[in-house]
Design goal:
The protein has about 240 residues and is of the alpha/beta class. It has nine helices and ten strands. Pfam families: ABC_tran.
């Protein structure tokens, strides 16, 4: 069953046509990686899935709910669909543990004991149980991003969106964050959609790879087929440049 379905979706910023006739189904439990040059529409596509960007035409179905229907509760969609951004957006005045606990307390109304237990388990899962009482300013950028991942997981989402989660990190921190994301995708039945420029990571983690350019889906294939036998000439040119570095 499809977790996410785009039907003839069009997205504009004024006269700029950012997403052009997107038709796409992502099934429950899939891990899909979006790649493409800067400005190709990857982040825009991901941000439409939890309503951070509106679409102007077509239909976008998320977990059976049509985001274009005025009756759809967008806050419920955002509870079901977690998002990890390029920048971590942690609360600077709250410690790591509290950053993970705050949303489940307010939105899910979890009891304090249960919430704390879950948050500590998630921090252990992302390798940060020893940083629970540190402030964000006392940990590295890579550790902050892992806290942001734990914070999203604390809401028990059905789907996770990762929008270039390592682009703001120093090179030596990137692998730690990607290892955590890989572990999450392998050990859960959650649907994951990941925007990344790291081709080795896409090859390791994805069931499918989608190549976007100029707001359009150029190629959508199983991972091994995508990298070994890309069909579209534009895809081949992109891969030859990016895999050459």
């Amino acid at each position: 069953m499809a977790m996410i379905e785009f039907r003839n979706v069009q997205k504009y910023y004024g006269k700029f046509h950012a997403l052009k006739n997107i038709n796409l189904k992502i099934d429950k439990g899939e891990t899909v990686v979006l790649i493409g040059p800067s400005g190709s529409g990857k982040s825009t596509l991901v941000r439409t899935i939890n309503g951070l960007e509106d679409i102007q035409e077509g239909h976008l179905i998320v977990n059976g709910e049509d985001l274009t229907d005025k009756k759809t509760d967008i806050n419920q969609i955002r509870t079901d669909v977690g998002m990890v951004f390029q920048h971590f957006n942690l609360y600077a005045n709250k410690d790591v543990l509290e950053n993970v606990m705050i949303a489940p307390r307010i939105v899910l109304k979890k009891s304090e004991d249960e919430n704390r237990k879950t948050a500590l388990q998630l921090l252990e899962r992302v390798g940060l149980s020893d940083k629970a009482h540190n402030m964000p300013s006392q940990i590295s950028g890579g550790q902050e991003q892992r806290v942001a991942i734990a914070r999203s997981l604390a809401m028990k989402p059905k789907c996770m969106l990762f929008d270039e989660p390592t682009s703001a990190l120093d090179p030596e921190m990137i692998e730690d964050v990607l290892d955590v994301i890989k572990q999450i995708t392998e050990q859960s039945d959650m649907t994951s959609i990941i925007v990344t420029h790291k081709m080795w990571f896409a090859q390791e983690v994805a069931n499918r790879v989608i190549f976007l350019d100029d707001g359009q889906i150029i190629e959508d294939r199983k991972t091994n087929e995508f990298f070994e036998h890309p069909e579209n000439e534009r895809t081949r040119k992109f891969l030859s440049k990016i895999l050459g570095h």
